[in-house]
Amino acid sequence: MTVDALQTEIAPEIAPETITITPLALDIGAEIGGADLGQPLSAQQRNEIWAAFVKWKVIFFRDQKLDKASFVAMSRQFGALNRGHNIHDVDPEFPEIYGVVKGRQKTRISGEPKFDPWTGWHTDLTPAINPPTATILWGNVVPPYGGDTQWANLAAAYDALSPTLRAFVDGLRGVHTYMSYDGVTLSKEFAERIAANQKVSEHPIVRVHPENGRRALWVSPKFLREIVGLTPTESAALLAMLKSHATRPEFTLRFKWRPGSVAMWDNRSTAHLAPRDIQHSDFDRQLIRTTTLGDIPIGVDGRKSKPLEGTPLLAA
Predict the structure, then answer these.
(1) CA 248, CA 22: separation in Å to the nearest integer?
(2) Does residue 75 sit in helix, strand or coil?
């Protein structure tokens, strides 16, 4: 099933009959009950889950009995899947999977850094012309405490801007690219992998959601590097303000993982923050990720994003 067909088939507003929805904050995050993700979902249940996903932007399932095969099969019910990662190695048996494993970033640098390499706030894979629609993350091995993930509601961030600033940013576009970690030197192998798989795209600063029409302040802090048409000084100053604004605490939600937890978020209207604290503990943390094939973002003026370098993300 194509992404366009999936979004046409699934209506964004359905009164739930087969699941329960427990909101976790005013406008982002809900826990879904009544769904066994290890088994095929009915069309109605899948539709209800998708409706909750679009409305709440990130949804969570607890106590799920999964393995890699059933996790991939479940993920496929929500759209075609990307390769697990377009830079790093993936499991040859399950190329749709990417392991979000503690300590993985330290293999990407050369020498001893002065501080831990860290991705920080980001929206997944925005350097690509067609970033994923959804990211799905399964807590396979989680610590007893620490290692929480946070999400920010980029639609709420846009709504909170002044009318004057909204009118200004509505017409802006920004360049997203893979960049090295600030303050560290990349290992030779990792630098070569980035160079061989580099993607650069020009996206609208304000993205219009293709299903509900809401506008989101689509500033992926890690990957958005400059605003088109502004001087470097203007671009840096405005980006610093927008990125800080987008992740203000009132727009965010924090999730505590338990074994068997699954998170699924709308990459078109959120940013998320991986934990840093877990790197300083002895606890293991292994999460398994899939992403669904996305479409090309569209701005307020109706213009689509523009590829500057590299190829689109493809289905695995």
Answers:
(1) 23
(2) helix
Domain edges within the chain: 3-309
pTM listed for this prediction: 0.89
One-character DSSP codes across 220-270: -TTTEEEETTS-HHHHHHHHHHHHHHHT-GGGEEEE---TT-EEEEETTTE
Question: Does the domain at residues 3-309 carry the CATH identifier 3.30.420.340?
Answer: no
End-to-end CA distance of the chain: 13
* 118 has pLDDT over 60: no
Nearest of 8, 53, 80 to residue 268 by alpha carbon? 53
Q: Say if residue 293 is exposed, middle or buried (CB neighbours under 10 Å; 0-12, 13-18, 19+).
A: buried
Smallest CA-to-CA distance from 158 within 245, 286, 284, 231 is with 245
29, 31, 32, 36: CA torsion to nearest 10: 120
The residues annotated as belonging to the active site are 122, 124, 272, 289
43: helix, strand or coil: helix
For residue 94, pLDDT beyond 60: yes
145: pLDDT strictly greater than 60? yes
